Amino acid sequence: MAKKQMLAEPGWARWIAFAGRLILALEDAVEEYGLTEIYLRSPVFQADLAPRVVEIRTEPPVTGVERYVEERLAGVSIRIASGGEFKPLSDLYRQVLKVYLGRFAPTLLRHAVETDSMGVEYLAAVVGEGKLVVLEGDEGRVTIPFIQSWITGHTHPAGHCIFSHKDVSSMRDFYTHGGLVTGVITTSCSMVMWREGPYTMDDHLALIWLEKALKKLRDPEEVPGILRNFSEQARSLRHSWVKINLV
């Protein structure tokens, strides 16, 4: 029997792709120009709108950054502006997380019901210019070839809310290629991991630690301690931006 596949292009998914492309371009600009912060005009944060013009302000002010960013964002004009309401780049990462929880997770949750009844897991992702892809896996697992995606998630049976060590291993590729949020969705609870800054070597090391800890896990009651230790380790690393939470 052919496996189920769904392909859609809702407005919020197009915005996720826009935000992902913008974040990657601005991360490059921060490194290239030695910036301490980039601020964005608030319309960028509207989750159903992918604007053609983005107004930014940098700290410290520099010349040429708008052209640098435009070269990495086909079809988007970047303007340096002053005055009015601006928000820091970190707020854009958090807005992506909000859209993940408010729009993406409910889409996958509907398939988690089938995971409970049939045992078949599903994977969903926003890829490319904003296509939402949902793929049926197999009983107890879902495996597909790696594709670059902005956000992704897969279902587990109810009560099995944590990432497996194999999930965490694949996350290193996910974040290396620009991924922003990933998670496990069940009908009873979920786990989500996201980043609030550029993916760094410190993040990479923290994920290796988490993978090893989950591989040794035998008692689910150990999970809160593992998550606390992961968060404490990430905070102890100067350049770690990956966060994790049960929701």
Detail the topology: elements first, then pairings.
Blueprint: E1 5-8, H1 11-33, E2 37-41, E3 53-59, H2 65-70, E4 77-80, E5 86-88, H3 89-118, E6 120-127, E7 131-139, E8 149-155, H4 165-176, E9 181-185, E10 190-195, H5 201-215, H6 223-236, E11 242-246
Parallel strand pairs: 3-4, 8-9
Antiparallel strand pairs: 1-7, 2-3, 2-5, 6-7, 6-8, 9-10, 10-11
Describe this structure in words.
This protein has 247 residues and is α+β, with helices and mostly antiparallel strands. The chain folds into 2 domains: 81 residues; 154 residues, no CATH class. Helices cover 40% and strands 26% of the residues. The chain has 6 helices and 11 strands. The strands form 2 sheets. Strands 1-7-6-8-9-10-11 form a 7-stranded mixed beta sheet. Strands 4-3-2-5 form a 4-stranded mixed beta sheet. Helix 2 links the parallel strand 3 and strand 4. Helix 5 packs antiparallel against helix 6. It is globular and about 55 Å long. The mean pLDDT is 89.
